[in-house]
Amino acid sequence: MRTTTALLPYLGLALGLLAGCSRDEAPAPAPEATYSRTVTYSDTASPSRLDSTFKAPVLKAFAQQNANYFTVFVQRPPNREAISFSFVRAKLPANLVGTYTFKTKQDDGPDVDFAYRIEITDRRGSSNWVYDRLIYSPTGSLIVTAYDAKHRLVSGRFEVNVPNASDPFALYSTDIPRRCNLSLQGTFTNAPVQDIE
Predict the structure, then answer these.
(1) How do the domains of the chain map onto residue ranges?
(2) How many angstroms separate the CA atoms of 98 and 95, rounded?
């Protein structure tokens, strides 16, 4: 009986240490994102410019990876607007941090592929517009500023310019969409990284 009683302080100490360790395990921080879109039209019609800004919780930021690719997404649910940046996984450093420029039709050398998709809906119907290097020659960069390997979270910012683009607010029924300069800027913080096949 004395032996059992003598062990109780050590048992209490061990339980206290375990409780302290569990308290030190902070939950992973919540993802955040910001995004602004500027459409500057080339003609003299009105409006000449449209500006929009979005942030959480309207936006969703996350990343997906497999053996070949690593892709960052910033989306405006429900699947109405999305920006993606896709890297060849083998070319990325282990900590992912760096500045990556966009590929164009003329140059396959840069580091990251870019695509932007927007859905426009009104009483007459809906249209989906896609802007990528197969059709346009976007310029800009994506900067990965941090990677939390423990929680698998990635953070960074981006800036994209798509010159001489079709109006993203035109419906397919429009005979000749207005031409514009499309500028996209944004940030993503603590975007969770998901493994896919």
Answers:
(1) 28-195
(2) 9
